[in-house]
Design a protein that fits this description.
Number of helices: 16
Strand order of the largest sheet: 9-8-7-6-11-10
Length: 595
């Protein structure tokens, strides 16, 4: 009797252990797969942010006022103009700071020249990024600032000597980029995230007490390197706690400095699921054991009772078996339902990510279509800049400083125009972060028109805009501009082959809605084409001029903001020609605006 009970208990223990191991393995694999996908997405965002500013120092280094400031550091007027230029670069590029150092590493001008903690007058020649740039290479470095005590990613590019007489750069342009926004965005994730340098130091971390710790004790060479460059000045680099270092990790490479994005996976959910599985297995086996024992006892009693009592005992046993089977079926059904719910959540997340990527692809595709016109638009001021620069040299040779100053002002105006165009293009190409808030629809129309101004001019088309001074709606400004650019670009394509090439945009108020109407003088839309306009991959354009996704994406964006996008008959009816699209979005503060 005791031997049978012992064997049964051993079997229960083995079954529970097997259930625990199987569930832990499966849950752990699922957690790791999720973390790998998350790490790949975070690494992609970081790489994109770093690549976006990679060429900016080189562009700044080509500016004449940067070279002249380095050649004439004692000219107060030149240095003051350079300070203001760097401040404008810092504001427009949304970087932490921009400054210029001479060939000795001394800062001669900076965007924060008016701040108490200004960089001007400080020598950063000891920093690796400064040494690399002054040697003629691109300098990259992440460190805590010795002046502001604020960390950032430093990107430096040498400023070439136009005359080449020194055989070395005049100095370098340096940008400081803050990565704190990425660190703040990691704080709400399921995994604990960290960005690790090539020495194994965690310089960004979602867990505050992990920041400026190392994956393992640093060797003497690494400590000397960090101390010499003052990379983490004022910070003591201690190893991570043993419990944190023992967590499972997935990682992705980031940037050109050997950084690694690491996600530390918490195994607690996997262990919890495994314990639940083992407990459920124990309950099922216990129920089976109790059922078997009851069945055995009832059979013993049935042998000593008459046929009626035996039949009743048999019926009771069958009922208990059916209950046990139904219980087992319910447990399995519940487990299957939980698994399907997890799969549904994963599918929903994948769908959302795919939709965002499709929206971004539509924007980039549209930028490609506008590239030729925008190149022409930038080429004109570039040609003017060269002409004014040549004139300035000639006036300088003739000793006419007033004419030189006038030509330099023309050059500055042309550069400002190119800066506005490039800034608008960069803003339009930036990936939307789904930031919903109040949007001035009139300002969005002006931004979209600026992007397409060159294309309309190239095709000889007239764009007229009649708009309210302001109409605020709730939405994502980048995606609203994408919808407007797509509708205005479609209208331009429609009138490209027409005798009269005109597009008219009207922004008006209709009750509680803002209504944008875009009409063109093109050939119009056939009824059968209008019925399918918003279907994915349907297009009325010739082959190779579109995938048929623009209107489908635009309609999806507008519906997500509670609005409507429709193709309607033009004024005067369908027979007058032309096409008309109507965008309708709910207004904010309608009572206040009406008053």
């Amino acid at each position: 009797m005791f031997a049978v009970a012992g064997a049964w208990l051993l079997a229960v223990a083995l079954a529970c252990a097997a259930a625990y191991h199987f569930s832990a393995e499966r849950a752990g694999a699922a957690l790791r797969a999720k973390a790998e996908r998350h790490a790949a997405a975070l690494a992609l965002d970081l790489n994109g942010a770093l690549e976006k500013v990679e060429t900016l120092p080189f562009v700044i280094s080509l500016q004449a006022q940067v070279q002249q400031g380095l050649q004439h550091p004692g000219d107060a007027a030149r240095i003051d103009a350079l300070n203001h230029y760097l401040a404008e670069v810092q504001q427009r590029a949304q970087v932490a700071a921009a400054y210029v150092i001479d060939h000795n590493g001394l800062t001669i001008a900076a965007s924060n020249w008016q701040d108490v903690q200004t960089f001007v007058g400080n020598n950063y020649g000891f920093r690796p990024y400064a040494r690399a740039a002054l040697a003629g290479d691109v300098g990259r470095f992440y460190a805590i600032g010795t002046t502001t005590s604020l960390p950032g990613y430093f990107l430096a590019h040498p400023v070439a000597d136009p005359g080449g007489s020194h055989g070395r750069p005049l100095g370098a342009v340096v940008l400081k980029i803050s990565l704190d926004a990425f660190e703040r965005s990691w704080a709400g994730g399921d995994e604990r995230a960290a960005l690790v340098d090539r020495n194994g130091v965690l310089f960004l971390a979602s867990q505050p007490d992990w920041k400026y710790r190392s994956l393992k004790p640093l060797d003497d060479a690494a400590r000397r390197e960090i101390a010499a460059s003052q990379q983490y000045t004022g910070r003591r680099i201690d190893p991570l706690p043993a419990a944190a270092a023992a967590l499972p990790v997935v990682e992705q490479p980031v940037g050109p400095l050997g950084w690694r994005l690491m996600l530390f996976v918490d195994p607690a959910p996997a262990r919890q699921a495994a314990r639940a599985m083992a407990f459920g297995t124990a309950l099922l086996l216990l129920a089976a054991a109790l059922g078997a024992h009851a069945w055995s006892q009832r059979r013993a009693h049935a042998r000593s009772l008459d046929a009626a009592r035996a039949a009743l005992s048999e019926a009771s046993t069958q009922l208990e078996q059916r209950i046990a089977e139904r219980t087992a079926e319910l447990v399995r059904a519940n487990r299957d339902l939980a698994e399907r719910y997890r799969e549904l959540q994963q599918a929903e997340q994948l769908l959302r990510e795919t939709q965002n990527e499709l929206v971004q692809a539509g924007k980039l595709g549209m930028l490609g279509q506008m590239a030729a016109g925008m190149t022409h638009e930038l080429n004109q001021p570039l040609t003017a800049v060269k002409a004014f620069a040549d004139n300035a040299v000639a006036f300088l040779d003739h000793g006419d400083p007033d004419s030189v100053r006038e030509n330099l002002q023309h050059i500055s105006d042309a550069c400002s125009r190119m800066g506005r165009l490039i800034g608008q293009l960069k803003g339009f190409a930036r990936k939307s972060e789904d930031l919903v808030g109040p949007v001035d629809l009139a300002a969005s129309i002006r931004n979209a028109a600026l992007l397409l101004e060159a294309d309309y001019r190239q095709h000889g088309a007239a764009l007229s805009i009649t708009a309210l001074p302001s109409a605020r709606v709730m939405g994502d400004s980048l995606r609203i501009e994408q919808v407007l650019v797509n509708l205005m670009k479609n209208a331009l394509d429609a009138v490209a082959g027409a005798d009269e090439r005109s597009v008219h945009l009207v922004l008006a108020r209709d009750g509680d809605d803002a209504v944008v109407t875009i009409s063109d003088s093109g050939p119009g839309l056939a009824p059968q084409a209008r019925a399918r306009l918003f279907e994915p991959f349907f297009t009325t354009k010739p082959s190779g001029q579109g995938l048929g996704l623009g209107l489908a994406i635009s309609s999806s964006i507008v519906q997500a903001m509670g609005g409507q996008l429709a193709a309607t008959d033009p004024p005067g009816g369908r027979g007058v020609g032309g096409a008309q699209f109507v965008l309708r979005l709910p207004l904010l503060d309608t009572e206040e605006e009406t008053a």
